[in-house]
Design goal:
This protein has one helix and five strands; from the N terminus they run H-E-E-E-E-E. The protein is α+β, with helices and mostly antiparallel strands. It has a five-stranded mixed barrel with strand order 1-2-3-5-4.
Length: about 110
């Protein structure tokens, strides 16, 4: 009897464990649904060594954090235009984007 109750409980619980949200991947207007992409926070540069590392500080972090830059790092502004890395100085506000182990893109925020 006990085994039957356990089996019945498993039969009831399993569909809930593997439940998927039904849908067609389209919004109610018939357009493809888009997921909200998380954005990286805007931080302030504390130290910057082009092609090596960037040290940033934020109001949400007590100590500055140092990130290693990837070999193919790109420096752009808010509109995607290339920015000269020498224009990045302490106090510059940036957004850091990472896909792998190092920073792949530094987005310089407009002053």
């Amino acid at each position: 009897m006990k085994q039957k109750l356990i089996a019945l409980a498993c039969v009831v619980i399993v569909p809930l464990a593997f439940a998927q949200k039904s849908g067609t991947g389209q919004s109610k207007t018939g357009e493809p649904a888009t997921a909200a992409m998380p954005t990286a926070p805007i931080v302030t540069v504390a130290e910057f060594t082009p092609s090596e590392s960037i040290k940033v500080s934020s109001t949400s972090v007590v100590q500055p954090v140092t990130y290693k830059l990837s070999k193919e790092v790109s420096y752009v502004d808010n509109k995607g235009r290339t920015v000269d890395p020498s224009s990045i100085r302490p106090g510059t506000r940036v957004q850091i984007e990472m896909k792998g182990k190092g920073v792949d893109r530094v987005v310089v925020q407009a002053e």
